[in-house]
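pipeline: protein-struct stage 2 | run 1193 | Aspartate/glutamate racemase family protein
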Amino acid sequence: MRTIGVLGGMSWESTQSYYQALNEGVNQALGGLHSASVVLISVDFAKIEALQRAGDWTRAGELLAEAARRLERAGADCLLLATNTMHKVAPAIEAAIGIPLLHIADATAERCQAQGITRVGLLGTRFTMEQAFYKARLQERYGIDVVVPDEAARESVHRIIFEELCRGEIKEASRARYLEIIATLEARGAQAVILGCTEIALLVDQSHTTVTLFDTTALHAAKAVAWSLKT
């Protein structure tokens, strides 16, 4: 079994979901008392969020690249960046390490392709929904068309992530708002909806809607488990 390096804390609420999914995945595969071999660094999200708001992605990339190097030195054989938004700085992180970064958009796109999905809705932070780093990867590498909510809906999705989900607050009114937005994306032709922020699955899951949902946290963790166990 190879060791998975997890760069988390963005937010810690979803990082604990990663840790659980990694260990459950390895145990399901190997049985008995087996669990995942994991090295974890959890950063102070307040510092990263401030850089996001300031648009200082260069400095954010530098901080995460240094944390990634520490994971590599600690024995990680691959890197799992436990956040969608900060994959914006994935190139800076990859340039700083000698181990593979398992990209969250690749894990998601591979599942889309496996299910024949060619047009998806995307929920996430404003950065993920509006900037090109995530959407372009899906479109250019995998031929998947991406639909995002309108301006008002994007504001709702973003606000709920930072003001509620990252703080561990789960509200029924917010779930209802997300489900309304998901239904709108389906009406616009989305065959499925990507939960493109690792906190969203804390609020909405497949039991809440008939629209196919892709939980990026679960897909990312599953890809890491398969990589770790591959011989």
